[in-house]
Amino acid sequence: MSISRSWLPIAIWLFASGHAPAADLKFFEAVEPHMGTLVRIQLYAAGQQQASTAFRAAFDRIAQLDAILSDYKSDSELNRISRDAVGSSIQVSEDLFKVLAASQKLAVETGGAFDVTLGPVIRLWRQARKEHRLPAAEAIREAVGRSGYRKLQLDSERRTVQFSQAGMQLDVGGIAKGYAADAALEVLVRLGIHSALVAASGDLVFSDPPPGQAGWRVGIDSLDQVDSAFTRVLELSNAAVSTSGDTRQYLEVDGRRYSHIVDPSTGMGLTVPIAVTVVAQRGIAADSLSTALSVLGPDRGIRFIEKQPGAAALLVTGRGKSARVLESSRWASLSKAPGRTVPGPLRPQAVP
Predict the structure, then answer these.
(1) How far is residue 297 from each of residues 29, 85, 109, 291, measured CA to CA in Å?
(2) How do beta strands 196-200 and 203-206 pair?
């Protein structure tokens, strides 16, 4: 996760364990590039052989999901159905169907604030960032016309997908990394690794706590503090946390910043600064909810997260002295002051 202190009000950091592990478990860490970022896995294992086997299996599972869910790879399953599912039902893999079903459920619940059919619009803004110019208004209208979650039909019994309009394109960038992190953690558990974390950019999932600790420690960094200080610390286990903001991917034109997060109702990149951190039971939920709350905005976002069982959120909108901070009712029970400066933060770095 690449952090720019000039723009993002909240940043997530990981802390290495400050306590000695149990005598029969040792700490191991590995990093590999997957899904357009660096994926970091930390775990406790009986020895190097068990850790190496677990790392390989977990990273291979993430690579498998990238081949299914990527919108960058022309031969991915996601892109194949975008070409073939117009007017006809196409059976898809269990992984892809799970992601699309969760996406559609959230789309309905948020009134379309989360929408994986926004691919045509996302690609338009992606090209605009490369060319450092705003997309033409007519191009945005045309792309929005080829989007809309109601145009995507799923059949859970037959596990099929169908589009009601030609030219549609799926983009699961707001949910795929969380799902992949969940899947990697499940692999680790099956291999007997019960204390681990998987960090895919701003999406982190955790199993049991490190030996001798209450949970995996995640620092929330305020821009009012120096680099080595943390205003709040979460201690999480068997949970997930995700953060969304306009730190890395944005377009700035005539002094106005357009986020890579797009409002499906307008096809425009968000222009009101907002940073969202969500804690949920699983990565697929935390990842997608952080995007949805960004689009809903602070007030609607807080009202929505209060209705989600087991979820909590911290939202910051605006910048500098005009920043506004909102916490959901469950956030306070998760967050506490660190009590001291914690040196040596770990952070996944995005692949250039």
Answers:
(1) 36, 33, 15, 10
(2) antiparallel
Q: Which are the contacts of 332, defined by CB distance < 8 A and separation ≥ 6? A: none
pLDDT (tens digit per residue) in 261-284? 999 999 999 998 888 999 999 999
pLDDT score of 13: 62
State which CATH number among 3.90.1150.10, 1.10.150.20, 1.10.3980.10, 1.10.3720.10 fits the domain covering 77-163. Answer: 1.10.3980.10
Q: Give the global pTM.
A: 0.88
Average model confidence (pLDDT) across the chain? 86
SS3 242: strand
Residue pLDDT, tens place only, 128-154: 999 999 999 999 999 999 999 999 999
Ordered by start, the domain boundaries in the chain are 77-163
φ, ψ of residue 70 to 5 degrees: the values are: -70, 135
